[in-house]
Amino acid sequence: MLVVFGWVKQMDLVGAPMPAYCFNCQSYREWGHLKETEWATLFFIKILPFISKSRLICDGCRDEITLNSKAQEKIKELANASDAEEVAWIKAGFDKLIEAHQLQNKTEAQKQYIQSIRSSASSAERHVK
Ligand SMILES: [Zn+2]
User: Fold this and answer.
1) From 31's CA, which of 79, 91, 102, 111 has a CA 20 to 30 Å away?
2) What is the whole-number distance in angstroms between the Cα of residue 36 and the centre of ligand 1?
3) Mean pLDDT of all residues in 24-41
4) How far, in Å, is the centroid of ligand 1 from the Cα of 27?
5) 119 pLDDT band (50/70/90 cuts)?
């Protein structure tokens, strides 16, 4: 008897994209929340979810940030948050996460320069609105 085992990768976009500043793109971009699940298959039918990973992906440069379980909880909280203050708090947390990820290999001088570009981008966008 022939038994066919295999693995299948499934990618799902979860919820609405979140606007946040991207240091690579030097502008505000939409960050999608992507959930990747690896399934064990038997005769090409998914039977068991194996590994599950969550990532934020910038729609401009495709930069990816792997989310730990705490960050995944925060994304769920953000989707259910109704209070504007709560939303702002959670979004500020993701801004910090993106900043820590994208500036981790930069020197202090580079960070200061990148931060100065960000502040001018923020004020320019405020003027547009
Ligand atoms: Zn980007």
Assistant:
1) 111
2) 20
3) 94
4) 8
5) confident
